Amino acid sequence: MSTKTITVVRDLLATNKEAAAAIRCELRRRGILGVNLLSSPGSGKTTLLEALADRFRGRFRMAVIEGDIETERDAERIRRKGIPAWQITTGGACHLEARMIGKVIGEVPADIDFLFIENVGNLVCPASYDLGEDLRFVLLSAPEGDDKPAKYPQAFLSADGLILTKADLVPYVPFDPARAAAEALAIKPGLQVFTVSALRGEGLDRLAEFLAEALDRQRSRRA
Amino acid sequence: MSTKTITVVRDLLATNKEAAAAIRCELRRRGILGVNLLSSPGSGKTTLLEALADRFRGRFRMAVIEGDIETERDAERIRRKGIPAWQITTGGACHLEARMIGKVIGEVPADIDFLFIENVGNLVCPASYDLGEDLRFVLLSAPEGDDKPAKYPQAFLSADGLILTKADLVPYVPFDPARAAAEALAIKPGLQVFTVSALRGEGLDRLAEFLAEALDRQRSRRA
């Protein structure tokens, strides 16, 4: 990569960081916990959000910003759960950037607890872009294989939590959840690991509790 | 994106195109068919190459260039099949570029039939980079979901063939192969569609035949 290219990328990331800081500040002011979900395409981000919508109903209010290259499909799925959702279509770009979130954030209702951001399905590029979230999760689905953390380290290094998804498929694929977790923990010690099957509603209690506690912590810091 | 950024990206792509043209020329001169495999992480690119190595044994000679952000794992898997393999680790970059292939191509034995290039696992960025291949396949695994072509159109638009992988998992996941194929064909009419289970060795005959015919065509054009 030429020096010129590196400078441009650095400028983009610096501009992104400023926009992200403004979003983080605004979310904290409103007492909303921002959560950024990263993964490969088809790891189950939307299905997890649908399951959390069911789990949170009557207890917490959530909203979702969906990132995709094309189509409004994921936002439509979330809206069918009665959850406010905005679709950002990047039109080719491989990741969400903070300025894209900044354009939507004003429309997010003030009385919600969680703002989930589902990034473009890509285990590489989104890891470099802070979106002003308070928590970042990387999802890894069983059929992707337990060898992925070491091959795509940045996503795991930048995350606060790892969600091993599609646990219902473990009997049918070569995937050892313990190996996946160990490999991720070698990259990022202290990473919180959750194993879920969103389709079967399994493993969601611990994740929901973790999110509730993070929200409490954020609000008590503000108080 | 600023004008400056767009210019830099265009320069990069133009430089890549030149390097790709040189590789294509060199491969054709040697009578080698170059095949670029694109997909999300964990869609089964390496497993497909292992299965093709078994299928081709005694009939065709192949070599593999592996692209990953980190680790030599995939090249090691291919070498265990007795196939020459080179690992390119991009150290963070989300795709292979032609100049990376250019650095390795001199080491590829002259007497092989197929040079497979397994790109970095990413359904977005690799689609923009010509690596000098003659054929490009995009892989989509059943657990990723049949809604992916419209959400990641560039990869499907740029491909010559679509390989629906992990067909053995279809009974366990919400995936309609016909819907996935129809959606991909709406983006790229004429796309060749193959359905395989590399683990079970199913669906490989048609794919192997397609590759053999493409090799014949390339060599007869050269003669």
Structure write-up:
Two copies of one chain form a homodimer. Chain A has 223 residues and is an alpha/beta fold. Chain A has a single domain, classed as 3-Layer(aba) Sandwich (Rossmann fold), CATH 3.40.50.300. Helices cover 42% and strands 17% of the residues of chain A. Chain A has eight helices and seven strands, in the order αβαβαβαββααβαβα. The first copy, chain A, has helices at 3-30, 45-56, 73-79, 98-105, 148-151, 153-157, 177-187, 204-222, and strands at 33-38, 62-68, 85-89, 114-118, 135-141, 161-165, 192-195. Chain A has a seven-stranded parallel β-sheet with strand order 3-2-4-1-5-6-7, sandwiched between helices. In chain A, α1 (3-30) packs parallel to α4. Chain A is globular and about 45 Å long. Chains A and B meet through α1 and α5 of A and α1 and α5 of B.
Number of strands of chain A: 7
Q: How are helices and strands ordered from N to C of chain A? A: HEHEHEHEEHHEHEH
CATH architecture of chain A: 3-Layer(aba) Sandwich
- Identify the strand order in the major beta sheet of chain A: 3-2-4-1-5-6-7
Quaternary class: homodimer
Number of helices of chain A: 8
CATH superfamily of chain A: P-loop containing nucleotide triphosphate hydrolases
Shape of chain A: globular
The CATH topology label of chain A is Rossmann fold
Number of domains of chain A: 1
Beta-strand proportion of chain A: 15-25%
Structural class of chain A: alpha/beta
Distance between the termini of chain A: 47 Å
Largest sheet of chain A: 7 strands, parallel
- Can you identify the CATH class of chain A? Alpha Beta
Helix content of chain A: 40-55%
Give unreliable regions of chain A as ranges.
Answer: none
Mean pLDDT of chain A: 95
Compute the CA-based radius of gyration of chain A. Answer: 17 Å
Pair of chains with the largest interface and how many residues each contributes: A-B, 36 and 36 residues
